[in-house]
Amino acid sequence: MEAWPLLEVVDVHKKYGERVALAGVSLRVAAGETVVVMGPSGCGKSTLLRCINRLTTPDRGDVLVDGRSVMAMDDDEVLLLRRQIGFVFQHFHLIRRLSVLDNVALGLVMAGTARQVARRRAMRALARVRLQSEAEMYPDQLSGGQRQRVAIARALAPGPRLMLWDEPTAALDPVLVSEVLDVMEELARERSTAMLVVTHEMRFALSAADRIVMMDRGRVVEEGPPERVFSAPRSDVARRYAQLLVRQPPSPSTQARFGTGAGKPASKAKQFPGKGRGLWHVTRRGRRPSVRR
Amino acid sequence: MSLFRAGFWKDYIAVIVVTVVLGAGASAGAAAALDVVLGRAVTGLLGEAGEYDLVVHVREQSRTAAALELARLLAAAHEDATVHQGVTVAGSANFFIKLPEELKTQSSLEQLAASLGGLPGFNGYAWMLEPSVAVSGLRPGLRDLLAVEAAAVPGVRAAVRHGGSLTLLLESPEYQRAVTETLRERLAGRHVLEVRWPAGATVDETQILHAVADTLKPRTLRDVTVRSGRGMTPRDDAADTLRELLPLWRRLAAAGARAADAADTLVQLLDALEPALALSETPEEQGERLSEAVRAGHGADALRQALVRVLAANLVRALNGEAPDSPPELPSRAQLEELRATLAALAEDAASWRDVAQEDVAAALEALEGLLPAPDADGGVLELFTEVSVDPDGVAQAVREWTGYEVAVFASSPGVIRPSPRGVVAELLTDVRRTIAGMLAVVIAGAALALDQATVFSAAALFPGSRRGRAALAAGVGAVLVGATYSLSGGGIPFIGAGAATALGTVLGLLVMAVAHRLSPVNTEEILAGQALGLSDGQIMREIVVPAGRPGLLVLFNGPRRQFR
């Protein structure tokens, strides 16, 4: 791992009333790194993301971005911080009365960028998610996948060094998931932005993650590269995800990215979570994980 | 609170100020417009100022007959008096009467008003004399006293009494203020005390006056009791007279019986003195008496008696040294005969009284008394016009100490000075205008709370800040909006002053805050997106929350300052 992390979460605690959301979470994300956070619903993943840009204030612990304590920042500094961190929500959270272009340009203009400059940058961000032609449309005129891509463009437009993704595909029709995942994988490949992604998407985790962080009951229970976490899971949570991976073999695109072996019979695939060397042998190929038999 | 940073608070305060100004202006304007409309309606109904002097109400069914009778009455009063039939309102036909100047005197006006009672279907009347000042709610005695005093006030042309009111017709409108002020001074700080004592108590009213005057020493103390006409009918007067005559009749009956007895006694006495009458006879009269006795042929006894009387009389005179032909100075026989005749007649007349038993007379008079209505069953009453510092308890105590009687004392207002009927209507219209202005002010401020402020209250719940702080904001904004709009509009709903309106605004503000999320729902996802993009709370309000809120001044004011329209 890089010596100087872009993001460092240090022993963060958060409670909502009596319910513990985070119970001492610590993790690091390096610049350009893609970290996938997985875990059962209610384990604190979304709270972790919100604590990072202080949409939620932790009860204890600290969050360091570029070595600066988020907890020590005043209100204006927090606003600046948020402008440097892209955030993609599960339910898009687009402004309905604004056009696609305005939605993307909103953050830029409010940060003081000239209107025309902001529009150009917004158009570039839309181009990255292949939605230039929909720039003048309104959110209600778009499909769910398109809306999420607009939300991604909005988060990308200011050129953030870190992007936080809060289950970006969870609210989408399975048919539309791919178009969002394709964009996310593309961004991950570019490695210009560090990404902390909360998702249940095994495809993305396998194809794009540098590391997997498994959370359960407000704690990080396992952490490591995807090939290790899924081939030799140490926690129950990771084990369950691994089992899921065996039942749902990778898609053809994942097979292509990870090599041969994908689409083997389920009877063999079931051997994957087992002890010792499984059916799927997960290795790293270059900077991206690959899967081979 | 954080949402008021980044300049949004300036917009917010501006919106509140403009809401108050516009709301007050709109309320006052609408109320004034209504005032004008109602004023025109009143002019159509009552005529121009001074056009009529009297309006007479009669039941609609009797309108035709009343019109004829009224015309006859007015013609009898003065040939120049005119009548105009007005609109019929709520089953009551109205006749507007214009009187000539010569008729505008106290006696003529009161006489005319008294004669109206005979109109078919008569349903009341009202003086529309202008310029005038009226005092209503007067006790009859005070009304009469005031009428006398007011008639002497410069500028008062006539003091017309009607019911519990007194209308002062003025020489000109310039006297209105001065006369009103004079009346106000006369009545201010004073009241009427009604002193009542139980039936059967013999209370000297003068003593009560002395008791109050000496004990409490008021600067003003006037007896305003109406003794003759205290609501009494002619029948009541007759009953009172009969009641006063009853004791006389009882004494008269007793005296009659005694007179009969006395007459009899006197006649007997005269008979007994018959012999003595001879002393007063001259010799010629004595000779006539003897001759008459011989002619009457009463016999030797009668002749002897007559002779004895003559001899005895002459003997008495001889003993007295008197000449036989000079009779003593005694009543003449003719006088004594006249007395005898009178006494006989009296005895005859009084004999009928003697035949009536005293018990029967007493029983008859008692029965008559029983038929009369009870004499003032509530006892007596004395009405005093005095200062309010002379309190009922003090008077009751003073009377008790002076007279030993327990009296009940009640205080009542001396009366209310009112402007002329047109003034009353104008006053009523002012009240209506103020009420409507007040109601509109509350409605407009309430609408502003529901439309503009609900959006802010709703969003405030999603920004950092305590619930108590939000409640204080809602209460304060509600108080300012309603209280200031109400006051500036000149609103005046009965029993609701500026303080009450402000309190109402506080409650309304809190109420709107409690239901703000329903009145003006705020999209929390959009706010969260704005926060995640690094927008300040003020920017979020201006670019996201307010544009999506309900149309209102806040939306209007926010428009030009928005980056994304």
Short description:
Chain A is an alpha/beta fold and 293 residues long. Chain A has 11 helices and 12 strands.
Write the layout of secondary structure elements.
The complex is a heterodimer of chains A (293) and B (565).
Chain A: E1 7-16, E2 19-29, E3 34-38, H1 45-52, E4 60-65, E5 68-69, H2 75-84, E6 85-88, H3 100-110, H4 115-128, H5 144-156, E7 162-166, H6 174-190, E8 194-198, H7 202-208, E9 211-216, E10 219-224, H8 226-231, H9 236-247, H10 252-258, H11 266-269, E11 281-285, E12 288-292
Chain B: H1 8-46, E1 54-59, H2 63-77, E2 82-89, E3 92-98, H3 106-115, E4 122-127, E5 132-136, H4 140-151, E6 156-162, E7 165-170, H5 175-187, E8 190-196, H6 205-216, E9 221-223, H7 234-272, H8 283-296, H9 300-319, H10 333-355, H11 358-371, E10 381-387, H12 392-403, E11 408-412, E12 416-419, H13 421-460, H14 467-488, H15 498-514, H16 516-519, H17 524-532, H18 537-548, H19 553-558
Antiparallel strand pairs in B: 1-3, 1-4, 2-3, 5-7, 5-12, 6-7, 8-10, 8-11, 9-10
Helix pairs in contact in B: 1-13, 1-14, 6-12, 7-10, 7-11, 8-9, 13-14, 13-15, 14-15, 17-18
Largest sheet of chain A: 6 strands, mixed
What order do the strands of the largest sheet of chain A run in, or round the barrel if closed?
6-7-8-3-9-10
Chain oligomer state: heterodimer
What does the average pLDDT of chain B come to?
79
How would you characterize this protein structure?
The complex is a heterodimer of chains A (293) and B (565). Chain A is of the alpha/beta class. Chain A folds into two domains: 7-224, P-loop containing nucleotide triphosphate hydrolases (Rossmann fold, 3-Layer(aba) Sandwich), CATH 3.40.50; 226-293, no CATH class. Chain A has eleven helices and twelve strands. In chain A, a hairpin with a 2-residue loop joins strand 9 and strand 10 (219-224). In chain A, helix 6 (174-190) runs parallel beside helix 7. The longest helix of chain A is centred in the middle third of the chain and has 17 residues, at 174-190. Chain A is globular, with a radius of gyration of 19 Å. The two termini of chain A are 27 Å apart. Residues 257-293 of chain A have low confidence and may be disordered. Chain B is of the alpha+beta class and 565 residues long. Chain B folds into four domains: 2-38 and 422-561, no CATH class; 49-188, Alpha-Beta Plaits (2-Layer Sandwich); 190-274 and 333-413, no CATH class; 282-326. Chain B is built from 19 helices and twelve strands. Chain B has helices at 8-46, 63-77, 106-115, 140-151, 175-187, 205-216, 234-272, 283-296, 300-319, 333-355, 358-371, 392-403, 421-460, 467-488, 498-514, 516-519, 524-532, 537-548, 553-558, and strands at 54-59, 82-89, 92-98, 122-127, 132-136, 156-162, 165-170, 190-196, 221-223, 381-387, 408-412, 416-419. Chain B has a four-stranded antiparallel β-sheet with strand order 2-3-1-4, covered by helices on one side. A four-stranded antiparallel β-sheet of chain B has the order 6-7-5-12. A four-stranded antiparallel β-sheet of chain B has the order 9-10-8-11, with helices on one face. In chain B, a hairpin with a 2-residue loop joins strand 6 (156-162) and strand 7 (165-170). The radius of gyration of chain B is 47 Å and the shape is elongated. The two termini of chain B are 26 Å apart. At the A-B interface, helix 2 and helix 3 of A face helix 17 and helix 18 of B.
